[in-house]
Each structure stands twice: as structure tokens, then as C-alpha cells.
Design goal:
Number of helices: 5
Helix content: 25-40%
Oligomer: single chain
Number of strands: 15
Distance between the termini: 76 Å
Strand content: 15-25%
Strand order of the largest sheet: 1-10-14-12-11-15
Radius of gyration: 48 Å
């Protein structure tokens, strides 16, 4: 009898004890409201997208054409700058020395050109004319000496050698007169045009060398390409700045005033998005406030998804269509903030 009814009774008691234990040990977690409500929109059919706030000019990563040592920075994050304002500049001592050398060469080339253009000097003409008169006088003297020796009637009284020497003296004096006259004509004619062309070419070459050094100096000073706001400044005096695209830009610049939202729409939902659709956006973590957006443009090229929300169900191996919307003036958001974008679709 005990075996027939005891074992089932013991089993029932064990089951009851186990059920009571489970019921007593199971935690009673009351429902908890989410820390922040999810983003909502006033329309039923919608497409969600992740948006990133940026300047209307897009964020400009200011870089350098040449690497160098930074010796001065003229701005800080949050400053408003005008177009052409100096942002930072590099060490230029070597180029300054090279510029001084090139400018001295330019002065020398210009001085040589001025000298050639001013030739002949008025003071150079009288000495040249005097040399012509001197040569003519020597020719006259040589002719007189020849006439004297040639007038002797008795050929035995003079040597033939002396007569020939006097004749050669006249010829030499005649050639000397022609030489001095030609030199005078050359002096009065001024500088040869080809020499002037060479001198002008040397001046042009020197000017080009100066302009090249000045251009290299200008590349060492980075100025603002637009009027805007310094969003980020990661360069300091004394640091070595590299040229080209950088993972961390030296200065991040954007147009101040108008802000845009770049929304990443999944490629599966892209065909459903229309330019004139109603759009609202909420700042990430504050769905209580919704801001209307205005369509600006589609980015034609579909790109891989980069802006992630860290949601457990988020797809990362996908591509997105980027749509740019404009925010109203005075919306309390900052460039770089993420926004939840809701787009009405049919």
C-alpha cells in the first residue's frame, strides 16, 4: 500500500515544491518606459534615415600643398573668418633668403638693360671724334712724308726701301682713319637690337624666378577659401604639418548660418523617396522635438553606408542614397550631430 500510493504522492509534493520555488525565485520586473521615445512622424507611410548635420558649403578639410613646420596659427575653433583670412602659416626663412637672391639678380638684369638702352653716353662721342681727327692727322703726316721722298728726281739719292715704307705708312694711316670713323658710326648707332633683346629676355627670366619664389611663399600661408566658421582646429605652432589628405584634417571649415542635413537612405528605400515629400528630423536622443526639412538635392552616386547607429538589427553591408535637406534658421543643432530623419512616402 505504501509503495502503491507513496511514490506518486511524493512526486506530487516535489512538483508542488518546485513550482512554488520557481514562482518565489522568479524576479518580478515591472515594465520600464524607454529612456527616450523613438522618433515619430505625423504621417503613416514613411522611410527612416540617418542624417548628419553639416554646413551648407559642406565641411571643408583645409590642408597644405607642401609639408612644413607650422610657425603660427591665427584662428581657433568657433572663430568666424572672412574669405582670404590667414588661418596658419609655415616656416619660410629659406624661401625668404632665396627671394632676396632672385630680387638682386633682377636688379642686376634691369641695370644692364638700362645701360644698353642708354648707350651711347653723350660723353663718349667727343673722345671718339678726337680719335678720328688724330687718325686723319697721322694720315696727312704720312702723305707729306711720302710726297717729300717721291719728289726727289734722282732715284739714286733715295733707297727704294724707304719709298716703299712711306707708301705702306700712308696705307696704314688710311686704314686707321677708316677704323676710327667706323667705330664712331657704331658708337652713334647705339646698342644693337639683338643685344637689347637678349637683355630684355634676361630681365624677363629674372622676373619669372622672383614670381616663382613669391608663389612658393604664398603656398606656405593657408587662407580661408570661404567666409565661414572654424568647426575644428587640430594644428598648433611648432608642429610639423603634412601635405595631402589626412585622416584628421588640420582645420575643418564650414559656411556659417545655413545648416543642412545629409540623410542616408537605404538603397532598398531609395526609389520611394520623392523630392517634394514631407520630411521631419529629430536630434538623436531627443525625439520630443521635430524640425521640418526642405529638399535641396540628391547626391547622384550611391555610396557604401558609413554613418552607423549601433542598432543590433542595423545592416552595415549596404549602400545608401544621400539626400541633402536644409534646416530652418535658428534650429538648435550643431555640425556633426546625428539626426533621425523621417520621409513621407506613398
Amino acid at each position: 500500500m505504501l509503495t502503491k500510493f507513496g511514490i506518486p504522492l511524493f512526486a506530487l509534493l516535489s512538483i508542488g515544491f518546485a513550482a512554488m520555488s520557481v514562482a518565489r525565485l522568479t524576479p518580478n520586473n515591472p515594465p520600464v518606459a524607454p529612456y527616450a521615445p523613438p522618433p515619430t512622424a505625423p504621417f503613416v507611410n514613411k522611410v527612416g534615415a540617418v542624417g548628419l548635420v553639416e554646413s551648407s558649403s559642406e565641411n571643408i578639410s583645409v590642408s597644405l600643398p607642401v609639408p612644413g613646420l607650422v610657425v603660427g596659427v591665427g584662428v581657433t575653433a568657433g572663430d568666424h573668418v572672412a574669405r582670404g583670412q590667414k588661418l596658419f602659416w609655415l616656416d619660410d626663412r629659406d624661401l625668404r633668403a632665396e627671394l632676396a637672391l632672385r630680387e638682386s639678380n633682377l636688379k642686376l638684369a634691369k641695370a644692364q638693360l638700362t645701360r644698353l638702352e642708354g648707350s651711347p653716353r653723350p660723353e663718349e662721342i667727343p673722345p671718339a671724334e678726337a680719335r678720328v681727327h688724330e687718325a686723319e692727322a697721322q694720315l696727312s703726316d704720312a702723305q707729306v712724308q711720302l710726297d717729300l721722298i717721291a719728289s726727289v728726281s734722282d732715284s739714286r739719292a733715295i733707297r727704294r726701301e724707304d719709298l716703299e715704307r712711306r707708301r705702306r705708312g700712308v696705307q696704314i694711316a688710311t686704314a686707321k682713319v677708316e677704323e676710327e670713323k667706323a667705330a664712331l658710326r657704331l658708337l652713334k648707332a647705339g646698342t644693337w637690337s639683338k643685344d637689347l633683346d637678349v637683355a630684355r629676355a634676361q630681365v624677363s627670366q629674372a622676373e619669372a624666378q622672383v614670381a616663382r619664389i613669391q608663389a612658393d611663399l604664398g603656398r606656405l600661408t593657408v587662407t580661408s577659401p570661404i567666409s565661414g566658421e572654424i568647426l575644428q582646429c587640430k594644428v598648433r605652432a611648432g608642429e610639423y604639418a603634412a601635405a595631402g589628405p589626412l585622416a584628421q584634417p588640420l582645420i575643418l571649415l564650414g559656411a556659417s548660418g545655413q545648416l543642412n542635413v545629409r540623410a542616408d537612405v537605404d538603397e532598398r528605400d531609395a526609389p520611394r523617396v520623392a523630392p517634394g515629400a514631407a520630411v521631419y528630423a529629430s536630434v538623436r536622443g531627443d525625439a520630443s522635438r521635430r524640425f521640418p526639412l526642405k529638399f535641396v538635392r540628391f547626391e547622384p552616386f550611391v555610396v557604401p553606408k558609413k554613418n552607423l547607429t549601433n542598432d543590433a538589427t542595423e545592416r552595415v553591408d549596404t549602400r545608401v542614397l544621400q539626400v541633402v535637406y536644409a534646416l530652418d534658421q535658428g534650429v538648435p543643432v550643431r555640425p556633426g550631430q546625428q539626426m533621425d530623419v523621417m520621409i513621407e512616402v506613398k
